[in-house]
């Protein structure tokens, strides 16, 4: 593709079909961790059902569906509002609306190659509003509908992470797709009724339920130590050096990794999930590929859903951020020398420690001023999306050929995605420093072959 162009043909603000009374929703510290947009692109192959349809028809159906969805998911039509007293962000539900953009390109989807692998062209398939430091003018939901030269479509969405976490974003996008009903029967799918109030995730409410005191959540403690270690080392890593790659890990590859890493006898006796195994392996491979000094502390952190960890659990349909990070730390030398069984047990133990008290300690650890993380090659973060099959969301006729995340705001984050064509395979979407790609590929794939 020689300098492929995407032409914007329309841009408008979409308002709720039924405006809601203006109100404030107080955010929890979990919501405030990352107010930036998370971008996800849905690719739909050309179909005889809609290739002869006008792009305006598709755009208008999506607009109408979004209007209806914003009436129920009212915070998505609002804006973030900074408290003048403490500077903290909260949600102002004021019907300001979402941004929907229409675009066309002569590029054919087949020219993009493997859709699971990030391509710079993907950046042209999303609408990126300029922040300018003023969150009160920053739309929380943006979307771009792009028609390809072959008749296929991309729907690129951007959603503020302060608004929804992964499961909530999945529910919101599913509701939008159901309300749009493009090229589908009008029998709408059953969608979840969202609960937008943050309730007991707000400061103090979790603390009141604590039976014991946890001084500092492990994830916060480890992160603080990594930042201090980085400051002493004065290492500079540019953000632009990163490339994103996706490694498809089949069921057979997982079985071979289990055999090679745990041994035939131990593997049979030792129980672990595919997540635990691949996370341990990714951590080892990434640390080796980055040539981290043996004496340096390295850390694996992974997201744990707190919805059912709180006592009592959060209500079904909770739409805010309910994920905390669990954490495991070793020196690079220990990580290299320790058995997979030991590392997996550490991951399992870290997971089991996420309870009501840990969540409270984690939130308290986020009380200070929020600042963006420096690049930390000693940090590996894993976000498991395998229970959120975004590709199954049917904005158009049938499932998406792929649902691809763009580069995350924090470039140490690897995503585990469900593969659209093989439900037992896991797509490991990992940002890498360009010069480490070959080394990582070698370390990561060797034990699976």
Give a short summary of the structure.
The protein contains 10 helices and 15 strands.
SS-derived structural category: alpha+beta
Instruction: Identify the strand order in the major beta sheet.
Output: 1-6-7-8-3-13
Terminal Cα span: 33 Å
What is the helix tally? 10
Q: What is the fold-level CATH name, i.e. the topology of the largest domain? A: Chloramphenicol Acetyltransferase
- What gyration radius follows from the Cα positions, in whole Å? 22 Å
Shape annotation: globular
CATH hierarchy: architecture of the largest domain: 2-Layer Sandwich
Report strand %: 15-25%
* Count of discrete domains: 2
> How do the helices and strands follow one another from N- to C-terminus?
EEEHEEEEEHHEHHHEEHHHEEEEH
Chain-averaged pLDDT: 89
Low-confidence stretches: 205-213
């Amino acid at each position: 593709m020689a300098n492929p162009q995407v032409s914007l043909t329309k841009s408008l603000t979409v308002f709720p079909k039924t405006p809601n009374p203006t109100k404030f929703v107080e955010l929890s510290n979990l919501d405030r961790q990352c107010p930036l947009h998370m971008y996800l692109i849905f690719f739909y192959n050309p179909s005889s059902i809609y290739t002869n349809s006008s792009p305006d028809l598709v755009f208008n159906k999506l607009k109408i569906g979004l209007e209806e969805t914003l009436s129920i998911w009212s915070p998505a039509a609002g804006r973030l509002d900074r408290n003048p007293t403490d500077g903290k962000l909260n949600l102002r539900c004021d019907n300001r609306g979402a941004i929907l953009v229409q675009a066309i390109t002569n590029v054919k989807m087949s020219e993009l190659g493997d859709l699971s692998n990030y391509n710079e062209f993907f950046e042209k398939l999303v609408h990126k509003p300029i922040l300018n430091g003023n969150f009160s003018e920053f739309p929380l939901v943006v979307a771009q509908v792009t028609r390809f030269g072959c008749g296929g479509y991309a729907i690129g969405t951007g959603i503020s992470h302060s608004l929804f976490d992964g499961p909530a974003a999945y529910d919101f996008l599913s509701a939008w797709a159901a309300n749009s009903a493009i090229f589908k029967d009008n029998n709408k799918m059953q969608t979840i009724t969202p609960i937008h109030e943050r309730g007991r995730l707000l400061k103090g409410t979790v603390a009141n339920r604590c039976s014991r005191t946890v001084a500092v959540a492990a994830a916060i403690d480890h992160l603080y130590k990594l930042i201090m270690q980085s400051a002493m080392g004065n290492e500079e890593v540019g953000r632009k050096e990163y490339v994103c790659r996706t490694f498809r890990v089949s069921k057979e590859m997982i079985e071979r990794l289990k055999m090679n890493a745990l041994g035939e006898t131990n593997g049979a006796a030792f129980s672990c999930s595919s997540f635990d195994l691949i996370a341990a392996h990714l951590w080892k491979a990434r640390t080796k590929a980055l040539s981290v000094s043996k004496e340096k502390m390295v850390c694996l952190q992974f997201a744990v859903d707190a919805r059912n960890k709180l006592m009592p659990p959060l209500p079904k349909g909770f739409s805010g951020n309910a994920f905390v990070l669990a954490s495991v730390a070793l020196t690079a030398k220990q990580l290299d020398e320790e058995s997979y069984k030991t590392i997996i047990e550490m991951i399992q133990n870290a997971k089991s420690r996420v309870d009501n008290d840990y969540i409270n300690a984690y939130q308290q650890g986020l009380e200070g001023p929020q600042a963006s993380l420096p690049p930390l090659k000693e940090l590996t973060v894993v976000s498991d999306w395998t229970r959120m099959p975004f590709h199954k969301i049917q904005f158009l006729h049938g499932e998406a050929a792929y649902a691809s995340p763009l580069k995350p705001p924090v470039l140490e984050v690897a995503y585990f995605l469900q593969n659209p064509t093989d439900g037992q395979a896991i797509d490991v979407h990992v940002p890498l420093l360009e010069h480490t790609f070959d080394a990582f590929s070698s370390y990561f794939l060797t034990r699976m072959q």
